[in-house]
Amino acid sequence: MNIEKSIKSHLPHDKLSSKIWKDRKMLPSFRESLLKISDAFIQYLGIPIDVTDIIMTGSYANYNYTVFSDIDLHIVVDVTSINGDTDLVEEFFSAKKKFWNDRRDIKLKGIEVELYPQDSANDTMVSSGVYSVQEDSWIIEPRKFKTGFDIENVKKAAKKVIKEIEIAIKNSIKKSSIEDLSKMLKKLKRMRQSGLERAGELSDENITYKVIRAQGYLQKLFETKYEIEDSELSRL
């Protein structure tokens, strides 16, 4: 998919996805499937946990879903009930989450389902749509977007950043160093976060980030970074 087509695919919809919602209520069969997936993930964690909620957030809980969107399913957990060392628990959850999502290919109606353990103490959510799958009700109801984004501005920004990424990858391979790659990844993170804080999910910065990700450049950055790190660790 070319950049312009990718950008236009991120324009918001007038209705929530009919694959999941009817009259702003989650379809019963879809909810049952999400709960089944959640149960499998909880069993996979392998430790007793106090689940306070199971929530769905992200684009499919909003009006800005695209063909690139997945379902963000969060298992909300009281981390303090597991261990007093919350940092250790967070690291454990992060590792288990990555292992699960990297090795599983779970899709509902063609939409990939991503699982995330979330600390119940961390209730700061940028998303404007949050649905409790457990309680079958909205926590934060999404609102239709009144404005869009500047397509031409996003197009120029995406092309500029893609060029910077290509240079960073080329230089990193040449120098066998991840320094430029790490800087680029931090820049992308800052760009997206500043856009979300400034103008929400339809900010030019956030759409630029999503277009770059959809074009596969975020994956290229990580793959190159891991290849260089693996090569360095393989030296005798």
Poorly predicted sequence stretches spanning 5 or more consecutive residues? none
Average pLDDT works out at 91
- What global shape is seen? globular
Measured as a percent range, the helix fraction is: 40-55%
Largest beta-sheet details? 6 strands, mixed
Report the order of strands and helices. HEEHEEHEEEEHHHH
Please count the beta strands (DSSP E, at least 2 residues each).
8
Number of helices: 7
Structural class: alpha+beta
Measured distance between first and last alpha carbons? 42 Å
What is the alpha-carbon Rg in Å?
Answer: 19 Å
Estimate what percentage of residues fall within beta strands: 15-25%
Can you list the strand order of the major beta sheet? 5-6-4-3-7-8
Write the layout of secondary structure elements.
Blueprint: H1 3-8, E1 21-22, E2 25-26, H2 28-45, E3 51-57, E4 71-77, H3 86-103, E5 107-108, E6 111-119, E7 130-132, E8 137-140, H4 151-175, H5 179-199, H6 204-214, H7 217-233
Parallel strand pairs: 4-6
Antiparallel strand pairs: 1-2, 3-4, 3-7, 5-6, 7-8
What is the compact description of this entry?
The protein is of the alpha+beta class. It is built from 7 helices and 8 strands; from the N terminus they run H-E-E-H-E-E-H-E-E-E-E-H-H-H-H. The chain is globular, with a radius of gyration of 19 Å.
Would you write up a description of this structure?
This protein has 236 residues and is an alpha+beta fold. The protein has seven helices and eight strands; from the N terminus they run H-E-E-H-E-E-H-E-E-E-E-H-H-H-H. The strands form two sheets. A six-stranded mixed β-sheet has the order 5-6-4-3-7-8. A two-stranded antiparallel sheet has the order 1-2. Strand 1 and strand 2 (25-26) form a beta hairpin. It is globular and about 50 Å long. 28% of the residues are buried.
